[in-house]
Amino acid sequence: MKRLIEYKRAILLLFFIVSGCASGPGKETLANIDQYFADDEFAAVAVQVTPDKLFNLPPKEINHLRQDFERNRMARDFTPSHKWLADYINADEGGFKYRDNLTKPPMDTFNARAGNCLSLVLLSASLADTLGVDVEFQEVEVPPVWDKAGDFYLVNGHINLRLIPKEKTDTYFVEKNAIQIDFLPERVMRGYAKRRIGRTTVMAMFYNNVAAESLVEGRYDQAYAYLKQSLMLKADFIPALNTLGILYRYKGLDDKAETLYKLALSQDSEDMIALFNYSVLLASQDRLEEWAEVHKTLELVRIRNPYYYYDMAQQAYSEHEYQTALTWYKRAVEKADYRHEFYFGLSRAYWATGDERRAKLNMQKALSLSVDEYNQRRYQAKLQAMQSH
After folding, report:
1. DSSP string, 280-346
2. What is the DSSP string of 110-151?
3. Largest CA distance in the chain
4. Domains in the chain, CATH or no CATH each
5. Cβ neighbours of residue 131 under 8 Å, at least 6 residues apart?
């Protein structure tokens, strides 16, 4: 799952998986989603990967996969198709690298050997379809992982799938258990609740993700095209309703944005992102009484956001209030102890207070958590400078 929240003007939901679509008896049926589109406000952009092609692989790759599998079938130590495919993908042992900023169709993920959890799910399902292996898609209720991209906050969740062995009258499987495909080992996932979701929801996630990534990059027409596709697949998909509302706000269509937020809330009156979006719009229009109705609930969202504490720490550091900065950085780490920039901030603040030992330890932690080469080089250089000091 990946939610993206803009902290300056509005709030956008960037979602890998749907979370919390439960609603009460008053849930509105979205029978005619077309009425909420605004085609006249956007240039027409073609969706590069249409739904009927989303799980397709090129014939050449399909042939290679089938040839490899046929060799397995001819071997004396024949492996059942779902297990063979799991070994072929080998995601949790480095067969594919995790790259959170990539939401790609299956062939791109296959070629790059990298992608996010949704990209891996799409690829794995495409490979499974080729071999006739059944799959189950799962939303995994992991704690939200916060990130930041430009003016946006991102909240990442998780999705994976299971490969299901097929029953055949002429085949006896000694091991019939389904196999989970994930970047993370299955033992790590055991403690989290899972919910089965349908293929249509997964497809809606893909188009919403690509739309949100396009919006972050300022490609509004493309974002609109992909959001339409997401909602035409699943009209009640709250993440896409939220994202379209944000896009309308960026285009100055506040009335349409409000309609979308209310529509999302008609599906789930407690959806925090929709409430947050709506509150920002209300505040921008000085509709303070309405804003106050949702603000109490939204305070809970704010204090759960580790970047709230991080931004406070950054401000204190810039004002040379290093002890205060340390306090805020530590609170950010308490909320999200997996973010390298929080430890980098701690390192700088400790160095500024003269605590060189803790400064080095936190720089080492920042280095160990960083996954991109730029930050790894930067942190390594700073750590070497500290050690030679």
Report:
1. HHHHHTT-HHHHHHHHHHHHHHHHH-HHHHHHHHHHHHHTT-HHHHHHHHHHHHHH-TT-HHHHHHH
2. HHHTEE-HHHHHHHHHHHHHHHT-EEEEEEEEEEEEEEEETT
3. 74
4. 1-24+31-304 (1.25.40.10), 306-387 (1.25.40.10)
5. 65, 66, 69, 81, 85
- Amino acid residing at 189: M
The two counts, helices (H) then strands (E), for the chain are 16, 7
Residues 6+ apart with CB under 8 A from 17: 1, 118, 139, 157, 158, 159, 197, 201, 205
- The gap between the terminal CA atoms of the chain, to the nearest Å, is 43
Helix (H, G, I), strand (E, B) or coil at 371: coil
**292-335 residue pLDDT tens:** 988 777 777 677 778 889 988 998 999 999 999 999 999 999 98
Q: How far apart (Å, rounded) are the C-alpha atoms in residues 255 and 260?
A: 9
39: tokens are: 């085609």
Alpha-carbon dihedral sign for residues 256, 258, 259, 260:
positive
pLDDT in tens, 165-199: 876 544 444 445 888 888 766 655 665 678 899 99
- Extract the tokens encoding 60: 């050449």
**Closest by alpha carbon to 162, among 138, 145, 183?**
138
Give the residue among 207, 168, 19 at the shortest CA–CA distance from 81.
168
Residue 132 sits at the vertex; the CA angle it makes with 187 and 99, to the nearest 5 degrees, is 45
Residue by residue, DSSP assigns 36-61 as G--GGGS-----SS-GGGTT---HHH
Q: Does pTM surpass 0.90?
A: no
C-alpha dihedral sign at 42, 43, 46, 52: positive
- pLDDT tens-digit series, residues 5-19: 554 444 444 444 333
The encoded tokens of residue 388 equal: 């030679």
